[in-house]
Request: fold
Amino acid sequence: MSEIRSIRARLKGRFLGGVAALAIGAAFPALAQDDAHYGGTMKLLGVSSEGTLDPHINYTARYWPLFIYTHDGLMAFKKVGGPESAEVVPDLAEAMPEVSNDGKTYTFKLRQGIKFSNGKDLTVDDVVASFQRIFKVSSPTSGSFYSGIVGADKCLAEAETCTLEGGVTGDAATNTITINLVAPDAEFLFKLAVPHAVIMPADTVMKDAGNQPIPGTGTYMFESYDPNASLIMVRNPHFQEWSKEAQPKGYPDRIEYTFGGTEEAAVNAILNGQADWMYEPVPSDRLAELSVSNADQLRVAPLVAWWYAPMNVNIPPFDSLQARQALNFAVDRGALVSVFGGPALAAPVCTILPPDMPGHADRCDYTADPGEFWSAPDMEKALALVEESGTKGQKVTVVADDTSTGRAVGTYLQTVLTELGYDATVQSISGDIQFTYIQNTNNNVQISVTQWYQDYPAPSNFLHVLFGCDSFTPGSDSSVNMSGICDKGLDDRMKAAMALAATDPEAALTEWGNIDYDMMKLAPAVPLFTPKDVDLISTRLGNYEFSSQFHWLVGNSWVQ
Reply:
């Protein structure tokens, strides 16, 4: 605790002015597009890779911004910066779908003349097979995003034989795809616009493709992938731009993503012109310096996201409600904001829905002064709850990734747990496996440090995806409900709220705010803070654009 507070004191005076100014001027205008900027090699850096190259399976903020340039779905989020980036447009579909049957049937006309990166023509058979594959490979969102498709219940029960009979059909004669839902879903087009719904060749392997690239239709293709070294993207030789909004021709000819090293080394490489961008957050002690010396190379943008600590409700000590509530009362969220870089880059939070997410309501019980906002920890209340729980003295391991910020947050939680009377330790795991490791119940993770960024602007994307019964799959690396909570009453309310959004959006948002509050009474996680995105870019990188869905739009930038 004392170490964290000393960090907070050091940063507060040196850092706020410079980065606050950057935050105000974060929306840099995009330069006019210029054919002369096509070409060159863009160089990206990451401390680690992050798992499979399979878009139907990988659920990470590191690779989704790449998948949107290698693969396409029927729909896509606009690849533009600013508010329009949350809008859905036709992608492989030539127009918005025809919606009928009281909102339960969607008919798409497939574009003609599109080829995969292996030269094969896109057909309706590829679309049908791809939707079946989502279930056959147990995509992390098969039970949440796509469970409303007719036939999905059978596919979830027996993935290997999934046909989605009556749910997804293709008509080669008319080049159309029909998707039938069991009930109207106001979020369905959003769900079709994320990488988990991209279209692949019908003969794609029906299991996790791992390190092997899968052909796509995007402007780029993956040339090679070594999780211990690098990921290389090159132009798809068969790509012809059909929609600049959905899939523009990327500017660089080649994108080299190198893994290894440290955040500090990455910062120096960018400043020295040896790299163009880094995935990990810039270390907070360097941000103060850079905000003065290299302010023109920093880009700051708001995020609909949160850092949180999911607690496993099915194993000790957090199978005790009082133990989970105790940690929520004990955490000094203000100290963690300082670890991340200060109030200009983060804000304390004690709800699941971030402030910029529709449905968010300002309510906080886990604070010294319960009310609209978090104010300070209540250690007295926390210690009393630990005594009541009977869990004092138990061993607790906090599993964090090996980034500097991840380790710092994990160490802070260890300190708090120790103050509460637990025998606490920290386990730091490489970022390329940490996210899947903490999802698998076989690893008996008690508590972890992780983040969640919106897939699309709807409250279900936080509450239902992260804490719904359909998102909990024991023994799977793709179980994003890491707390393992399954409250039938709240689950039914979440599904009812999703249905209500189709007829009364405002009432649905009010109900989501109430669900958030009631879920936090069960305390399946400790909300920590909401971050802002900070990108350090090279001096040669131009046309920087930031999407609310996928963050920096890699292919929209140029390097010459």
Residues 1-21, 23-32 have pLDDT under 50 and may be disordered.
